[in-house]
Specification:
Blueprint: H1 5-14, H2 24-42, H3 73-78, E1 83-84, E2 87-88
Helix pairs in contact: 1-2
């Protein structure tokens, strides 16, 4: 699939992008190359291939969930203008 300069202008306008006129052809060529690659990838027969979330068959190592900070909620709420039942009270912004 090929994208021309006029299509790049339309895309730039829709995306609210400022693209210099001298860069339009370069963008058109790059986008055309990307779409060509997508077409090539779509042409590959993937029948029987199970989708994977990761290309390697590995398990992510997770660290133990340990509390490392002390609870300072009361210290912070002591200096807040208004609190109630452990919550910060703020002025109403929307009706």
């Amino acid at each position: 699939m090929s994208i021309d300069v006029d299509e790049v202008k339309k895309i730039a306008k829709l995306a609210a992008l400022n693209v210099k006129d001298e860069d339009l052809q370069s963008y058109a060529d790059n986008l055309s190359n990307i779409l060509g690659l997508v077409e090539q990838m779509s042409a590959v027969d993937t029948t029987g291939v199970t989708p994977m979330s990761h290309p390697f068959d590995v398990v992510q190592r997770l660290r133990e969930d340990v509390v490392t900070e002390v609870d300072r909620r009361e210290d912070f709420q002591a200096i807040a203008p208004k609190t109630e039942d452990g919550l910060y009270l703020v002025p109403k912004v929307l009706d």
